[in-house]
Amino acid sequence: MTITKGIKIAKYLCLFPGVFLVVSGLLILLLPNSAGVLFDIKDIDTLKEPMALAMGIRQLAIGSMITLLALSNQLKALGLIMLIGALVPLTDFIVFSASIGWVSSLRHAAPVPLIFGLGFYLMYQIRKSE
User: Fold this and answer.
1) CA distance to 23, 55, 97, 108, per residue, from 68 (Å)
2) Number of domains in the chain
3) Burial letters for 33-43: b for 16+ Cβ neighbours within 10 Å, e otherwise?
4) pLDDT digits over 44-61, tens only?
5) Which residues fall within 8 angstroms of residue 101, CB to CB, at 6 or more apart?
6) H or E segment at 109?
7) Which pLDDT does position 51 carry in this prediction?
8) Terminus of the chain with fewer CB atoms < 10 Å: N or C?
9) How confident is the model at residue 104 (pLDDT cuts 50, 70, 90)?
10) The model's pTM
11) Secondary structure (3-state) at 111
């Protein structure tokens, strides 16, 4: 498989959501007060509950997968993870819209087109070059 300029750019663009998820996961786990800003949760005690810790671990795990796959040039796996991973912020949007309002929860839905688009682009380009 030849790595074209477009694939290389898409690979590096995948690092943005990957690193963001790692950082946000660490914030949720280590600094719940600042994590409240990420999820627009007013009751900080909610972020100290087991569910919030699970969210932090989820963010950290998915972000680590994306980052490591991008850095190790595992582009087919990266494309699949990005396609499937787009469901996470979409689901967050649906779940959080009930508690914080749909306008506030749009920050969760905003990256969905980028994440899905990068995954689709990588998969399309990799299949085309095989």
Assistant:
1) 14, 20, 31, 23
2) 1
3) eebbebbebee
4) 666 667 777 888 899 999
5) none
6) helix 102-109
7) 75
8) C
9) confident
10) 0.85
11) coil
SS3 130: coil
What the block records as the tokens of 119 is 């995954």
What's the pLDDT score for residue 80? 96
Residue type, 54: A
Q: What is the longest distance spanned by two Cα atoms in the chain? A: 51
**Of 71, 72, 61, nearest to 26 (Cα)?**
61
Of 3, 17, 19, 1, the closest CA to residue 116 belongs to 17
The domain in which residue 52 lies consists of 5-129
Residue-by-residue DSSP string for 57-105: HHHHHHHHHHHHHHHTT-HHHHHHHHHHHTHHHHHHHHHHHHHH-HHHH
Tokens representing residue 45 in the block: 């005690």
Of 101, 107, 100, 62, whose CA–CA distance to 82 is shortest? 62
Integer Cα distance of 68 and 117 in angstroms: 19
